[in-house]
TrEMBL record:
Assigned keywords, A-Z: Transferase
Gene3D superfamilies in alphabetical order: 3.90.1200.10
InterPro entries, sorted: Aminoglycoside_PTrfase, Kinase-like_dom_sf
Pfam family of the protein (one): APH
Protein name as it appears in the record: Phosphotransferase enzyme family protein
MF term (GO), any: transferase activity
Stretches assigned to the Aminoglycoside phosphotransferase domain: 120-171
Organism: Micromonospora matsumotoense
Taxon lineage: Bacteria, Bacillati, Actinomycetota, Actinomycetes, Micromonosporales
Entries under SUPFAM superfamilies matching the protein: Protein kinase-like (PK-like)
């Protein structure tokens, strides 16, 4: 059958064959598939279904039909729509609630190198606009579960806040105006309200910059090891470092507005 190259996919190229997604597998893929089967068994249909492996050892996943950002610049309007941000918060809450009781296989292996434990959920870890699948104004779900793994709820939320609110700094380096800061505070509140977050929101003043720096460290580590995709993402690592510094400079009132 003909292989159709799918748009996006900064780390693992994906192709569509006969309506099934085929992607390069990693040593943690089998554990991620266990998560996807757990979600499927719970009736959750806003994530790909794990379909095993092909004769080349590539993982096989069901295809989520809809629109993705791919390589488009600027991003489509839905990436900044309030209605989409609300759906992202609701999607994260559903995934976290469903995976709070997930029991991994005995040989569990994760990209993040952490094991499941009390109080942890399985976070997507990259539920950002460039991994979203959208149909009109409806969030279909998120693809690219490669880096999913054990996480606190705050840690997973922090990365989505960076990319969807967004709390990441502008790529052009321009400073934020007072109106920009107020709008970001409003959208952060919208995301956390949609999630139903009941913790101390001021804690995100620490969690968000830590999450940004952790992501930057991972990119640089992989790039140093010669990973071509990570090398291409080095400018993003720089942006994440700048974002962490800028977030730390926000006033305390920002987090509780």
């Amino acid at each position: 059958m003909r292989e159709e190259l799918l748009p996006g996919g900064n780390t693992t190229g994906a192709v569509l064959i006969g309506g099934v997604v085929h992607k390069r597998a990693s040593r943690w893929t089998a554990t991620v598939h266990a998560v996807l089967r757990h979600l499927e068994d719970a009736g959750f249909d806003a994530a790909p279904r794990a379909l095993g492996f092909d004769d080349q050892g590539r993982e096989m996943l069901s295809f989520l039909p809809g629109e993705t950002i791919g390589g488009r610049e600027p991003w489509p309007g839905w990436a900044s729509a309030d209605s989409m941000l609300v759906q992202v918060g609701q999607w994260l809450r559903r995934v976290h609630d469903l995976t709070a009781g997930f029991v991994p296989p005995q040989d569990e292996c994760w990209f993040v190198g952490r094991t499941m434990g009390p109080g942890l959920v399985v976070g997507h870890q990259d539920a950002s606009p460039y991994n979203a699948v959208v149909d009109g104004d409806r969030l279909v779900g998120f693809c690219d579960w490669d880096t999913a793994g054990p996480s606190s709820r705050d840690w997973d939320l922090a990365f989505s806040a960076l990319t969807w609110v967004p709390l990441a700094s502008p790529r052009d380096g321009r400073p934020l105006s007072d109106d920009d800061v107020r709008e970001r505070a409003r959208r952060l509140r919208l995301l956390l309200d949609a999630y139903g977050y009941e913790g101390d929101r001021s804690g995100f003043a620490v969690a968000v910059p830590q999450r940004a720096r952790r992501q930057a460290d991972v990119i640089r580590h992989l790039a140093h090891a010669g990973d071509a995709a990570a090398i291409a993402l080095l400018p993003i690592a720089e942006l994440l470092e700048r974002s962490a510094t800028d977030v730390e400079a926000l006033p305390a009132a920002f987090w509780t507005r």
